[in-house]
Specification:
Low-confidence stretches of chain B: 1-26
Largest interface: A-B, 70 and 67 residues
Oligomer: heterodimer
Structural class of chain B: alpha+beta
Shape of chain A: globular
Number of helices of chain B: 12
Largest sheet of chain B: 4 strands, mixed
Mean pLDDT of chain B: 87
CATH class of the largest domain in chain B: Mainly Alpha
CATH architecture of the largest domain in chain B: Up-down Bundle
Order of helices and strands of chain B: HHHHHHHEEEEEEEEHEEHHHH
Largest sheet of chain A: 4 strands, mixed
Radius of gyration of chain B: 24 Å
Number of domains of chain A: 3
Radius of gyration of chain A: 21 Å
CATH superfamily of the largest domain in chain A: Butyryl-CoA Dehydrogenase, subunit A, domain 3
Helix content of chain B: 40-55%
């Protein structure tokens, strides 16, 4: 048993920190917030050069063949700088779905291009009903001559407007068990009838879309994975992406703790640094406890993913339930410690606070995941 | 665009990952799996516990407190002796002093199995958790040979003489004096909140030996015979009705200089060692008790009804049980992170200081929920024919109020985290 990071992983952390501090400073992040693209071609190419777009993908597709514990290190660093752009949607949602469910031909067609930074993918899964379970997938895909016809609306779709291809979860059969009858489809974004509309978001570093499909026709080869059996691979992708999101949240919360602690050391009120007052000091201590707890649960979940453990759904939900509350509270307390300056547009804290809030609701909030934990432990 | 550079930052881990999939030995990365030897140890512990944990006990401690209750002292002393004879006490202690010379991984495995078996705690919890490790760290060869083995077997029970009426959170302000008289030191003063002093054979005593030095420097750590003349132990009755802790008065108690641990006027440093081990070793124990209590709470929730349906179907109850489950697991993972640093010979990280605070918060909320589930039955105490589980939860609920005070108040813990870990200025 060994529950710490290896020297190689610490090296990856150091490399990522140095790279992101220089290439992804807050001025750059703020510029990307104002634009639909969320990133720049140069930056995206650099991510590909580092090998980070393919970190957890098999070497046969050009990836590095690493695991989720390695990815955790990288995600923490990306969370530290509130990195914008379609990394999450391409690498952890669309791409992972293709890896998880795709045929050899589909994987060969898309994964090397995603990993090389030449193409991007997204996962159109959730709908206006705002459900995270299989029953939430209602958009019908009907068999037609030589393929399928999809009609309906997907909502909260991350970076659909930037994707070259969308993995769309659709309903192909109705029945008493909503898990049966979900199918996944590979739909290029330029397919006629598909429209991705960018929505204004509170967290401008995350670009969410409404995706409308009006009689979108796709060929039979567009089916990704087994007909009616798409929920199982999709659920695996979502659990993994959830773990990665938790790691990103840990990194953000850690950074807020550091910013707030440094500020509390230098900001003087009533003749003393505010960090010497227990009202502030104890708040900072509470923040540290929450950050460390969040890490413990996230690291365990990442380990469980790498072990392909049956505990992954439970571990992912435990981590997400905790991180959802912890990042929000830490970011909120960070603003409180900073006082008025923490509420300004100029200070970076609001980037973290907004990322915390959007992450809280991505893949289900704490209440949703605690209920899932309750079910998984047999309550 | 598809050009891939020769060298990437991720190359070394790539090799590692390949090695792992190939079944080669793992390097030091996150890993919860055990070696075959450790798995064998787990099986041995489990088999022994299955054969030896008394069923009657498992029923009685369904809401166990983390400190032994007075009515169980005789039983717990016997339990520790059997556990020791089976080789399951003092796993990390050197073999020559009665230990097993194993690592903290085995210690963690042991505690996981104790939790799963709902095993009783040991009686000499302060001796094994605090006195022993401190003697191993600071004791002379003679002291180690004299004291360690009886600590493990439970033949000699220890208590901790730290807190005083005017020195609690501000421990270094303690006033109990030890005055030199030839080869002896003569002790005058008072300790308070001294758990198990009424049955203890020895005390870890912190006393002031040089009042002219600054308050942290003039303290000495003595190994004090609790049967010596001049010691009066007066039980303090707690809000639970139990008297698990005491006031201890010293009126000219003579202690030989060979009973000094770690050098004259070095008591603060020695005492800090004790507190460090308290966090680590007792931390494992707390995790066990929390897991046992949570399992019992879940069982209780399954039995009780709220508004005509099982309590486990109530969404609010499910939320709170899940939250407690997450925190209990979290305590385990955080412990594993702290343990890893220890095994690697690194300094404790921030995670080492958070364990007690997580445990306190979780246990107090757990106990609140146990009463909330009972509705108006929560008002009934032991002896009432209507009391649920004979009022055991009412007792553990009251006992849990001490959690945020004993072993360093939550406020002191937060000061320590704020000042030592985050580097915030002292007030």
């Amino acid at each position: 048993m060994d529950f710490g990071f290896s020297q190689e992983q610490e090296l990856l952390r150091a490399t990522a920190r140095k790279f992101l501090e220089s290439e992804c400073p807050s001025a750059w992040v703020r510029a990307r917030m104002e634009e639909p693209a969320g990133t720049t071609p140069e930056f995206w190419a650099r991510l590909a050069e580092q090998g980070w777009l393919g970190l957890v993908y098999p070497e046969e597709y050009g990836g590095s063949g690493l695991g989720f514990v390695d990815l955790t290190v990288l995600m923490e660093e990306m969370g530290r700088v509130v990195m914008p752009g379609p990394f999450f949607s391409t690498v952890l949602l669309g791409g992972l779905a293709i890896l998880e469910a795709g045929s050899a031909a589909q994987k060969t067609a898309w994964l090397p291009r995603l990993i090389a930074g030449e193409a991007r993918a997204a996962l159109a899964w959730t709908e206006p009903n705002a459900r995270w379970d299989a029953a939430g997938i209602t958009l019908p895909a009907r068999p037609a001559a030589d393929g399928w016809v999809l009609t309906g609306t997907k909502l909260f779709v991350l970076d659909a407007h930037l994707a070259d291809v969308l993995v769309v979860a659709a309903r192909t059969a109705e029945g008493p068990e909503p898990e049966r009858g979900v199918s996944l489809f590979l739909v290029p974004r330029d397919t006629p009838g598909l429209e991705a509309r960018l929505l204004p978001t509170m967290d401008q570093t995350r670009k969410l879309c409404e995706v409308r499909l009006q009689d979108v026709r796709v060929p039979a080869e567009a089916l990704l994975g087994p007909r009616d059996g798409g929920w199982a691979p999709l659920a695996r992708v979502i659990d993994r992406a959830t773990v990665a999101l938790c790691a990103e949240m840990c990194g953000g919360a850690q950074k807020v703790l550091e910013m707030s602690t440094e500020y509390a050391k230098v900001r003087v009120a009533f003749g003393r640094p505010i960090g010497s007052y227990q009202g502030v000091k104890h708040k900072a201590a509470d923040m540290l406890v929450e950050v460390e707890n969040a890490k413990s649960l996230t690291y365990y979940a990442a380990w469980a993913v790498d072990e392909d453990s049956p505990e992954v759904p439970l571990a992912a939900s435990m981590a997400k339930a905790y991180c959802s509350d912890a990042y929000r509270r830490v970011a909120g307390d960070g603003i409180q410690i900073h006082g008025g300056i923490g509420f300004t547009w100029e200070h970076d804290l609001h980037l973290y606070f907004k990322r915390a809030k959007s992450s809280e609701f991505t893949f289900g909030d704490a209440t949703y995941h605690r209920e899932r934990v309750a079910r998984l432990i047999g309550l | 665009m598809s050009h891939r550079p020769e060298r990437r930052a991720t190359d070394p881990p790539a090799r590692r990952a390949r090695a792992r999939r190939g079944g080669a030995p793992r390097e030091d990365t996150l890993d919860f799996s055990l070696t075959p030897e450790q798995e064998a140890f787990r099986a041995r512990v489990r088999a022994w516990l299955q054969a030896n944990v008394p069923a009657e006990w498992a029923r009685r401690v369904s809401t166990v407190a983390e400190v032994p209750r007075p009515e169980a002292y005789g039983f717990l002393r016997e339990w520790q002796r059997r556990l020791y004879e089976a080789g399951f006490v003092g796993l990390t202690w050197p073999r020559e002093y009665g230990g097993q010379g194993l690592t903290w991984v085995e210690e963690l495995i042991l505690h996981e199995e104790l939790a799963a078996a709902k095993a009783p705690p040991i009686l000499n919890i302060l001796g094994v958790g605090m006195a022993g490790p401190t003697i191993i760290a600071h004791g002379t060869e003679e002291q180690k040979r004299r004291y360690l083995r009886p600590i493990l077997s439970g033949e000699e029970i220890w208590c901790q003489g730290y807190s005083e009426p005017n020195a609690g959170s501000d421990l270094a302000a303690l006033q109990t004096r030890a005055v030199r008289d030839g080869e002896y030191w003569v002790v005058y003063g008072q300790k308070v909140w001294t758990s198990l002093a009424h049955i203890a054979d020895w005390m870890m005593l912190l006393a002031r030996t040089d009042p002219t030095l600054p308050k942290h420097r003039g303290l000495t750590y003595f190994l004090l015979d609790m049967h010596a003349p001049g010691i009066t132990v007066r039980p303090l009755r707690q809000m639970t009705g139990d008297a698990e802790f005491n006031e201890v008065f010293f009126d000219g108690v003579r202690v030989h200089e060979s009973q000094i641990l770690g050098g004259l006027n070095n008591g603060w440093q020695v005492g800090l060692t004790t507190l460090m081990y308290e966090r680590l070793a007792l931390g494992f124990g707390l995790q066990v008790r929390l897991r046992i209590a949570l399992d019992a709470l879940v069982a209780l929730a399954r039995r009780l009804e709220r508004d005509g349906r099982p309590a486990t179907e109530d969404p609010l109850v499910r939320q709170e049980l899940a939250r407690l489950w997450i925190e209990t697991e979290c305590l385990k993972f955080t412990g594993a992170r702290a343990l890893t640093r220890l095994l690697r010979g690194e300094l404790p990280g921030p995670e080492a200081s958070t364990g007690k605070m997580i445990w306190v918060a979780a246990n107090q909320r757990l106990q609140e929920l146990a009463l909330a589930l009972q509705g108006p039955y929560a008002m009934l105490a032991r002896g009432s024919p209507w009391a649920i589980e004979d009022g055991l939860w009412q007792h553990s609920f009251l006992r849990s109020r001490a959690n945020s005070i004993e072993g360093g108040t939550t406020e002191v813990q937060k000061n320590i985290i704020g000042e030592r870990l985050l580097g915030l200025p002292k007030g």
